[in-house]
Structure formats: structure tokens, C-alpha cells
Amino acid sequence: MADFSIEQQNAHLIQNADQITYQIGLPERDHLAVGMRALAARYYPEARNSLTKALSDNPDNVRTRYYLALSLLDGKRPHMHSINLVRTIREHLESARKLPCAEVLLALVNEDHGLFWRKGVSQPPRLVALIGSLEAAQAQEIVAHVPAPESGVWRALASKTINRRTRP
């Protein structure tokens, strides 16, 4: 019981509970959601920071690995990055390979970093089918964050987003 008194006003507080819990500190953040919002807004450093925290919270989350790889590209094409960073990106995408979008992004990273698009290499049928299986929003997400229009993978993804806009 606690007594409170302000000028002529008096009050008694009686706490009648088996357990009273006080939470001190900040509430937990959903680092994956924060990272995805930062990525959508193209705040790549904040996205990387939040997604790295999300990955440390749950290292087996393949979506986190995919989005972390996308954020590590920093809105630039893969061949603009160092081999060490590209290795890290590839590792995340390899771990997330059960997601079709991760496998397609891995193919784009490999093609662009190796400049294979200069050699006019055609896309394997399995990759073409995989790109076809993506939702247009997933294709748009990759196209928006990885500007590599010379890449055959990128062009296939971009055509998927154009087809979405032209359909009724």
C-alpha cells in the first residue's frame, strides 16, 4: 500500500496481485521487418545493420539471408564490388537457395560479376523456368536494387515486370 498526498488531495494505492512485472528498457525490434523497410526505401546501411541483427537472432532464416545479400549489393551492380564482398553475398544466397528469388539473384550476381553477359551466353532452360516462376513483384525487387541491364538474367527479370504492367 502506498499513500499519496498533493495539497489537500489524498489517495491510497493498493496493489493486489500475485505478481507485478515492470519492463525496463526498449521493446524488442523485429529486425527483419525493419531491414526490409529500410531496403525498400533504399537505406542500404540501415538495411544491412538490421538484417545482420536479424540473422544473428535466427541464422537459419533464408529470407533474412536473401535480403541481406540484396542489401549488401548497395543498389549497385555486382561487378562494381570487391571479390570478398561478392563471396559474402554468394554465401548468403547459397544458404537461401531454396528460395527461387535467391537462386535467380545468385545467377545474376555470378553473371554480372564474371561479366559473362559480354560473352553472349544464353540462359539455361532451368534458369529461364525459375525466372518464370517468380512473382512479378519479386522480379521487380531484384531489378530495382541491382541495376545491371546488360545482364541476360536482369533483362529476363525486367521483361517479367513489363509483362505485368501491360496485362489487364
Structural commentary:
The protein contains eight helices and two strands; from the N terminus they run ββαααααααα. It is mostly helical and 168 residues long. It has one domain: Alpha Horseshoe (Serine Threonine Protein Phosphatase 5, Tetratricopeptide repeat), CATH 1.25.40. The protein has a two-stranded antiparallel sheet. β1 and β2 form a beta hairpin. α6 packs parallel to α8. The longest helix is centred in the last third of the chain and has 15 residues. The radius of gyration is 24 Å and the shape is elongated.
Query: How much helix is in the residues?
Result: 55-70%
Count of helix runs: 8
Counting DSSP E segments of at least 2 residues, the number of strands comes to: 2
The biggest beta sheet reads: 2 strands, antiparallel
Q: What's the SSE pattern?
A: EEHHHHHHHH
Oligomer: single chain
* Poorly predicted regions: none
Q: What's the overall average pLDDT, rounded?
A: 84
Amino-to-carboxy terminus distance: 68 Å
- Count of domains: 1
The top-level CATH class is: Mainly Alpha
Please write out the topology.
Blueprint: E1 2-6, E2 9-13, H1 31-40, H2 44-57, H3 62-72, H4 83-95, H5 100-113, H6 125-133, H7 136-145, H8 152-166
Antiparallel strand pairs: 1-2
Helix pairs in contact: 1-2, 1-3, 2-3, 3-4, 4-5, 5-6, 6-8, 7-8
